[in-house]
């Protein structure tokens, strides 16, 4: 077992041929561009390392996987889009989107060990992983963005639809549905429920890490026959740019301190 500390919000632990990548941003566990960039860089190293045969992504603080993307950064981006300081294409080229694309494109298994709150951007990243294992006591898994007048902007709707079907994904996104671990398993969003998410993920990771790497790579490549992404980020950028009422809603959301109640 070895530990590799990344600066700030991401740590990497090696256990045999498995890399365990933890994200933590106390106290709330939201992910902003800085944390997304750190996660991207850590994952890039693990994916490129031929000695790593399986990767686990999990939360580094109790009760939180990734709570959601940093709404204050989305609100700020809305103001920049409205004033022409950035355009929708630049908005779509973010470290957060890089992480999601990297997870989906990986040719080795990436397991999301969902150890706590997994909402919005947190679930979008988990959906990009190969396998999702949730702790049995997790109470909040969902895409609740509609509650603050936006929607998942990193491919989450398309990825969810590929897993549970378009109608169910559409309804979840339209209603901002939040599920517990067992409900998410019944819906097909989570592949397994375990007493401890990391323990369950390690069990699966050891199994997969023991398989022939060439065969695993071939299966991963053959299964990756879809590309859901950029459309949702561009659509979110245009919404933020063109709808003053949405930008005002985000400002109220942040100013009133209601965000934990609304999307947690």
UniProtKB/TrEMBL annotation:
UniProt cross-references to InterPro entries, sorted A to Z: ClpP/crotonase-like_dom_sf (IPR029045), Enoyl-CoA_hydra/iso (IPR001753)
Domain of life: Bacteria
A Pfam short name: ECH_1
Annotated PANTHER family: ENOYL-COA HYDRATASE, MITOCHONDRIAL, ENOYL-COA HYDRATASE-RELATED
Name used for this protein in its record: Enoyl-CoA hydratase/isomerase family protein
Gene3D superfamilies documented for this protein: 2-enoyl-CoA Hydratase, Chain A, domain 1
Signal peptide positions on this chain: none
């Amino acid at each position: 077992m070895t530990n590799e500390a990344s600066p700030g919000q991401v740590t990497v632990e090696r256990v045999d041929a498995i890399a365990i990548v933890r994200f933590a941003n106390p106290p709330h566990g939201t992910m902003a561009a800085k944390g997304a960039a750190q996660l991207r860089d850590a994952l890039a190293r693990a994916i490129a390392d031929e000695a790593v045969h399986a990767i686990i992504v999990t939360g580094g603080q109790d009760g939180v996987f990734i709570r959601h993307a940093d709404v204050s950064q989305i609100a700020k981006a809305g103001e920049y889009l409205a004033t022409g300081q950035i355009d929708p294409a630049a908005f779509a080229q973010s470290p957060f989107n890089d992480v999601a694309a990297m997870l989906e494109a990986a040719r080795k298994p990436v397991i999301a060990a969902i150890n706590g709150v997994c909402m919005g951007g947190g679930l979008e990243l988990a959906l990009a992983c190969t396998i999702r294992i949730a702790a049995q006591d997790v109470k909040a898994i969902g895409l609740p963005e509609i509650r603050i007048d936006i929607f998942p902007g990193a491919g989450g709707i398309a990825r969810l639809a590929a897993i549970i079907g378009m109608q169910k994904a559409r309804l979840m996104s339209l209603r901002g549905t939040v599920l517990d671990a067992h409900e998410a398993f019944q819906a097909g969003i989570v592949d397994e429920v375990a007493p401890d998410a990391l323990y369950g993920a390690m069990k699966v990771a050891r199994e997969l890490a023991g398989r022939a790497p060439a065969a695993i790579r071939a299966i991963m490549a053959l299964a990756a026959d879809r590309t859901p992404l950029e459309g949702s980020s561009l659509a979110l950028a245009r919404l933020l740019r063109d709808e003053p009422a949405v930008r005002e809603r985000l400002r109220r959301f942040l100013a009133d301190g209601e965000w934990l109640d609304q999307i947690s």
